[in-house]
Each structure stands twice: as C-alpha cells, then as structure tokens.
Amino acid sequence: MPVQFADRMSTVHRSFIREILKVTQDQSIISFAGGLPNPELFPVADLKAAAVDVMQEAGPQSMQYSTTEGFEPLRQYIADRYKKVKGIDVSADEILITSGSQQCLDLLGKVFLNSGDNVLIERPGYLGAIQSFSMFQSNFLTVGLEEDGPDLTELEKLLNENESKIFYAVTNFQNPSGLTYSPEKRQGVADLLRGRDILFVEDDPYGELRFMGESYQPVVRGYLKENGILLGSFSKVAAPGFRLGWMVCSGEMRDKMIIAKQASDLHTSTFAQRVIHRYVTDNSLDEHIEKIRARYGSQRDVMVKAIEAHFPEEVKVTRPEGGMFLWATLPESMSSMDLFDEAIKNKVAFVPGRPFYVDGSGENTFRLNFSNADEASIEEGIKRLGDGIKDFLSR
Amino acid sequence: MPVQFADRMSTVHRSFIREILKVTQDQSIISFAGGLPNPELFPVADLKAAAVDVMQEAGPQSMQYSTTEGFEPLRQYIADRYKKVKGIDVSADEILITSGSQQCLDLLGKVFLNSGDNVLIERPGYLGAIQSFSMFQSNFLTVGLEEDGPDLTELEKLLNENESKIFYAVTNFQNPSGLTYSPEKRQGVADLLRGRDILFVEDDPYGELRFMGESYQPVVRGYLKENGILLGSFSKVAAPGFRLGWMVCSGEMRDKMIIAKQASDLHTSTFAQRVIHRYVTDNSLDEHIEKIRARYGSQRDVMVKAIEAHFPEEVKVTRPEGGMFLWATLPESMSSMDLFDEAIKNKVAFVPGRPFYVDGSGENTFRLNFSNADEASIEEGIKRLGDGIKDFLSR
C-alpha cells in the first residue's frame, strides 16, 4: 500500500511553465517562454579565475561545512552594496545567504504561514511565490497592478477587510508584467502598510537591470521602516547556476529564519559563496551589470519595435525600462492558451498569462521574455506571433 | 506590531550542537564535539582541476538554471555506483539531486507529513532529522538501538500500536551512536515493515566509510522492495561545502518530491553538480575513499585505545567499524551535561547525548567525533576527558 501524501500536496502542481518549456525544447521554435538570463553574458572567465583563486588560497575551508547565516565577507559586500546602490542602511548581520532567492520564499512560509493564512500578492503575480506559498496552504488575496504599481484603492480595501500575514511584491520590472512601482506608489504602499500587522516582502531580482530612466529606493527601509523583508539574488547580475540569493531581515525574525534554514539545508554551498565573493571583490560588478543592461536594453528595443510593426493595435503591451519581460494583453474575448497552440504551429512560444492569476482571470494575457533571444530571432519571432494574432482576430 | 510567527516555530529551536560548537571555538579546547569530515582529506587539487575543466568546456551551461531533477550524467553515475558498490538496481530516473541530504528530510516532510503525524526514529536519533521533521509538527515515536540495530520486539509493538508515516533510520555507523544494522536486523526490519503503510527512509551518509568488517546491502531494495526511500550524500566521501546529496525514489512519490523541491529552491547548483560529476569521472572515488578509510580508521583506533587506557570501566563505549563517531554511556546516575561543563574547564569537548533523545532520556550518554582531530590531540583529549570522568565518579 502506498503511504498517503500530506494534505498540502493536493493543492500544488508541477509548474505550468516547466511543462511549457518542455514543448519549446524543439530547436526550430523561437521561444520567448523562458525566464532565463542570457548565458552569453555570464562572466565565465572571471568566475573561473575566482574559483581557481578560492581553491588555491582557501581550498579546504571552501569545501567544509560552514555557518547557516552565510560567508561573512559576502554578507558585508551585500550590505555595502545596498548603501552604495540603493542608499539604504543594511548591516552584514541582517543578511542571510540563501540557496537562491526562491529559498527565501520557502523560509518565509516556514517562519510565518499557518495553513489558511492570507497572503497578499500582485495580480498577475510571480509564479515561484505562488508555488512556494501554496506549499503552506496559504489563501491568496490579489491586488491588481496598474502601469505604475498596485491599485492603492483596492489595496486599502483588501487591508481593511482581511488580515494577511504577508504582502509579497516585486517592485522593479516585475515577473511577469515588467511593471515597476513609481515613487508615489512606493510611498502609498508604505503609508497603507504602516502600523498594520502585515509583513511586506519586497523581492528585487531585476532592480539593477535598468536600461533607462531612474532607479527608486526600495519600499523596505526606503519608505517603510518596520515589518519589511528585502530579497535579493545574484542570479540575474552574475549567474543563476550558483544558486545564491539572500534575505535582509533582523532581530527575532532573523533568528527564526536561521532555524528554518538550518532544518532546510544546513547552509548554502560554502564554495559557491566564496567564489561569488571573490568574483565581486576582484571585478567590478557595476561594469558587468552595465554590459547586461546594454544587451538586454537593445533586445528589449528590438522587441518593442517589432511589436509596434507586427502586432495589431488591439494588443496592449507594457514598455518596461528594465528587467527581462514584456506583458501583453489581448482583446477580452481572446484566449492566450488558444493562441499558444497556434503559435507553436508557427514555431514561436510564449507563456500564457493564466498561471500568474490565482483567481482564474488573465485568460487574455501572456508574457514575453526578451533576455534570452538574439535580435534576429526576436524580430522573426514577433513577426510570426503577430501573424498568428492577426489570424485569430480575423476569424 | 510584529507579525505573528507560524505555530510550527514554537516547537523548534536553534540547534543545541550549534550552540555547543560556539563554546568550542576556543583554539585551546580539543573538540570531539563537531561532526565535520577532516578537511585535510578534501581532494582540493582534483576538485580544482574539475572546476577548471567544467568552466572551460561548459562554462555558460554550468552557470545557467537547470532542471529540478538534477544533472543527468551525475544521476547516472550515482545509479551505476549503487549497482557496483551495494549491488542494488537503481536507475538514473529514480535519483533526485538535492542541496545536501539534509534537504531530503525537508522534502520528505513536505511531501508526507501533516501536523501531528507520527514519525518513527531511532533512540538515540539523528539531530538533523529531529529538527527537520519538527518543522512539520510531527509526533516522534522512538525505537531503541541495540549493538546490532533496532530492538525488533519494541519495533513490532510500535508498529502494531501506532500508525506512523515514516520510519527514519541511519543503518550504517549511525550519527550519533556509530552503530550499524546487522544483516539479521536488516531482514527483521524489512519483515516487520512489509505490507504496512509506512515509508522506510534509509539515510546512508557514512556507509562507504568502513574501516574493517564487511558491508551489507541497504534495507531499501536489498531487503525491502516496497515503500522505501534511500538518501545519499557526497559530503563525507568528497566534500560537504558543495552541498550535494540525493534521494532514490520512484513513481508518483518522485513526482511529488520534484514539485516540493521546485518550490523549495528550484534546483541544486548546476555548477556544483557539474564539478562533482567531473571529479568522479576523471578520478577514482574508490581510491579517494580508501584514503579516508585509512585515516579515519587509524584515528578511530587511537581513540578506542586511549579510551581503554583512560576511561574507567564503568563507562561503556561503542566500537564502530566505520563512520565518524563513538558513543559513550556513563553510569546511570551521571549527567553528561554536568560532565560537559567540567570537561570544558579541562579544555576538552564532546556533545552531551540528551538532544538525540526526543523523550528526554539519554542524560548519561555522549557522542565523540574522531574524524576531525589529529592523533596526538585524540590521545591527549581522551586522557583529559577520562580524568574528568574519574573525578566525577570519585565524588
């Protein structure tokens, strides 16, 4: 007799995107479905030099068990960078190194969520967070995103009418929508949250990938001084294969996070932490990020221009100033799932929007990734997709 | 107002061992408290060569996101090694690569444990498992360990009188006791479990570290064909700092594990997986393990001999044929916590046994690690400890 699974497993499923990515393995398909950074930009030679140096100078230590909090010099580097880049005060003791920022979501669930607790997310929302919080049988509430951040009227109503443990948000170049909170919306969110028993979790993997316009301070510590947690990651500014993320939090909260992390995987790879630390110490991360910005910015421009040339006017598409994604909205009557099936026949792929909506809406939306396709493919793929949409609209 | 923590956090605490290890940071203390492999034995040069080769030959791929299951060639290597070393059939598709084998425990909890579910563990039991399952608010039942494995009469009674989801066991050179299940006990456990709705989770991080005597087949797949999961790790045979472990399981169970793993950290470091794969491909892991065996075996012999010379007869100590630990039992009336305080004054440390017992017993036991101290320190440390024990007994 098979052993019964836990209740939580009945509410979670294999990632829909994962299944879609399988379909797009076919090399003849131009795929805008993934969410991958461009591997041509990984600083392979510099990371190799860093790995060699670490092994030469601290071989045994870099391969031994280490503390759950993470490598202190790396935590100090991250803290210093917050001051330099974002202008906010963070100490090394407030950083917890995690196995990718995805692990932060799991630790947040462990430390804060009882079954049935409300979690407030954006609509559309980040799929990894939906998956992770679902494991804790949380109940999702959603606040709609406008061009410049969440609908504050809707947010206030949600906060007044429900008790939620966590409000999870991606404030810069959100996945999937590419949208960014304006300073006014940041201030508005902080004003609405202040004094309430709700934790604002601000995930910011894309913030440094800004191609144009100006950066804003994080809501946490910039606008909101209490009940905030910041998440960060080296995946988009260095390389995701090292699985290195972090969480900024302090006090008792951090103590609990360390307990949860210890029970989850003891600590994050000592070797990976030391190699990335060596890399950011011996090289200029700023210069490297400048290269990523230039490339992604140009890929984004090509995609936007192709969309203007090939998509019918009825399709609305966001124009993000950074990040990795564009977000498209078809006319109400159209299903992006139906379009997906058609698009695959035309050898082009994207991610239909519905999985990003926990309320079953979003049928007419889809996500386009521009970071991991060359410019010729972007031009050609968008043309194919535009033709497919036109076919649909003319039926 | 601070946000309320989840209920599960009220039952788990910072690792006791972690706190003890802080006390033993003092360089003048000879510590048998840790559970660390000897870093002098890490194959630094070979791992460095492997890292360089991976970065030269598959740089971008080794730094990109990858599949949740893990790097296929590494899974194939592990499957082949099971056949070669343990004589059991495992396919690459049954291996799930994890971020250390500690993560296997977290995934098991996620996939199987509802709050209040019974989990059967050994008495004494592995602390990492107690911590990890505690996060799922499990209720622990314990079966006592005899010299050759669990007390089968007690096990049968426990199985008859309670429904448990999981029986978690370390069958070779257990942490903390150093004890190993005999073939008869393996058969006995399998016979008792067969046909019941209970999952046997066999953790085997130390199995290959055998200094003398013969190895036995795992219970899972060797003696028990159903409802078994095997856990493994590169931490003790290569290096722990890469955080690479794995789980052997199949069918729907594996599908659920992949969902849980994806929600937990997406996947384990692509780079770490490829480096370890390259290392085991270009080098003989068998030869390397032979070096570890020789060194640990000799350290174990020195510790056993020193114990025979310096401990009073009333103290019983296990004589394991492998692994990293000895287990000591003081006379009933003595507390190893009290001895610990005294020992620290004499500049020697160990881990008191009580944390390994969820039922509050074990007051008179303690764990000694022999893998991470040189032979002169072992001789001197055991002498100091023996003197402390004699002082106590003469009071």
TrEMBL record, chains A, B:
<feature type="domain" description="Aminotransferase class I/classII large">
    <location>
        <begin position="43"/>
        <end position="385"/>
    </location>
</feature>
<dbReference type="GO" id="GO:0030170">
    <property type="term" value="F:pyridoxal phosphate binding"/>
</dbReference>
<dbReference type="GO" id="GO:0047536">
    <property type="term" value="F:2-aminoadipate transaminase activity"/>
</dbReference>
<dbReference type="InterPro" id="IPR050859">
    <property type="entry name" value="Class-I_PLP-dep_aminotransf"/>
</dbReference>
<dbReference type="Pfam" id="PF00155">
    <property type="entry name" value="Aminotran_1_2"/>
</dbReference>
<keyword id="KW-0032">Aminotransferase</keyword>
<dbReference type="InterPro" id="IPR004839">
    <property type="entry name" value="Aminotransferase_I/II_large"/>
</dbReference>
<dbReference type="InterPro" id="IPR015421">
    <property type="entry name" value="PyrdxlP-dep_Trfase_major"/>
</dbReference>
<comment type="similarity">
    <text>Belongs to the class-I pyridoxal-phosphate-dependent aminotransferase family.</text>
</comment>
<dbReference type="InterPro" id="IPR015422">
    <property type="entry name" value="PyrdxlP-dep_Trfase_small"/>
</dbReference>
<protein>
    <submittedName>
        <fullName>2-aminoadipate transaminase</fullName>
        <ecNumber>2.6.1.39</ecNumber>
    </submittedName>
</protein>
<dbReference type="GO" id="GO:1901605">
    <property type="term" value="P:alpha-amino acid metabolic process"/>
</dbReference>
<dbReference type="InterPro" id="IPR015424">
    <property type="entry name" value="PyrdxlP-dep_Trfase"/>
</dbReference>
<keyword id="KW-0808">Transferase</keyword>
<comment type="subunit">
    <text>Homodimer.</text>
</comment>
<keyword id="KW-0663">Pyridoxal phosphate</keyword>
